[in-house]
Specification:
This protein is about 10% helix and about 40% strand. The chain has two helices and six strands; from the N terminus they run E-E-E-H-H-E-E-E. It has a six-stranded mixed β-sheet, with helices on one face.
Length: about 110
């Protein structure tokens, strides 16, 4: 896309929509706006904590920056488990589940030589 900047970040702060001194574990920016974010934890039993951090780190969207972008795509991972959400950018931001928790397994080939 001409004139569009896309940036992938890990372990950096995002001042546009994230509370100061908190950083998201994963961020995808499009034209300097956070559009995809994520939190990850090392153990599956920490999934609730990862999901809660999606909300805890959100400070609200500045309409001058985010305009008509109505939501962010956020995901939480805990070991091999993944959940995907939409976070609406209204004053009372809420997480809406898009894809319920699923487990990523390594696929093995069934092809024989």
């Amino acid at each position: 896309m001409a004139g569009t900047t896309v940036a992938l970040c890990r372990g950096q702060e995002d001042a546009s929509i994230t509370i100061a001194d908190k950083q998201r574990d994963y961020m995808q920016h499009l034209d300097n706006r956070l559009v995809v974010g994520g939190e990850d934890k090392p153990k599956r039993e920490l999934m609730r904590e990862a999901i809660q951090e999606l909300l805890d780190k959100h400070k609200g969207a500045n309409p001058a920056v985010y305009g008509d972008l109505g939501y962010l795509i956020l995901f939480a991972t805990a070991a091999d488990a993944v959940s995907v959400f939409a976070l609406d950018l209204s004053q009372n931001a809420r997480l809406q589940p898009l894809i319920p928790e699923f487990v990523v397994r390594h696929a093995t080939s069934t092809k024989h030589a």
